[in-house]
Amino acid sequence: MAKMLYSATMSLDGFIAGAGGDMSWLQEHIGPNPAVQELISEIGALLVGKRSYSGDDPHRGDPEREGKAFGGGWDGPQFVLTHHAPAEPVPGVSFVGDLASAVAAAKAAAGDRYVNIIGADVARQCLEAGVLDEIFVFVVPVLLGDGVRLFDHPGGTNVKLERIGLSEAAGATNLRLRVV
User: Fold this and answer.
1) Are 65 and 59 in contact (CB under 8 A)?
2) What is the residue-level pLDDT of the chain in tens, covering all 180 positions?
3) Nearest to 141 by CA among 39, 33, 32, 26
4) How many CA atoms lie within 13 A of 39 on its CB side?
5) Are strands 93-96 and 78-81 parallel, antiparallel or unpaired?
6) Cross-strand bridge partners of residue 47
């Protein structure tokens, strides 16, 4: 059965998007990373938050990569968690109104591969629902100072994680964790 994995590239100060959801900061940090390539080969489906799906794209302006998962490096079924599905269908994308249905559909589509979660709020919801299995973070050497945090829980919480992998690439330190 599929496992649920939250993956993201993060600044050293904990942000996965800049102020206002800006993703342009990421462009200069996208580069060869064997851990990312391995992850992409393990993904069977994506579970994406509506803000991530509709938001800024680090490949904006690149017609060959813009709007494509992992800049065109991955192709497969995508499930967008939203209460406001578009009127027109989008090929390869299913819009789902509740977390339990979205998780079930994405896991069924992924088979024995990972469901990769894209979006901090969806990842938080999965963690709170007890369905998040792993977190894979690619920490890049930049300080953003503001933006969307990897994990935000006002009032705080204490989520136990176990490190299951640590590697590095030219422009990132890769940290893989299991939710205990």
Assistant:
1) yes
2) 899 999 999 999 999 999 988 888 988 888 889 999 999 999 999 999 988 887 666 667 777 766 677 767 788 999 999 998 888 988 889 999 999 999 999 999 999 999 999 999 999 999 999 999 999 999 999 999 999 999 988 888 889 999 999 999 999 999 999 999
3) 26
4) 27
5) parallel
6) 79, 117
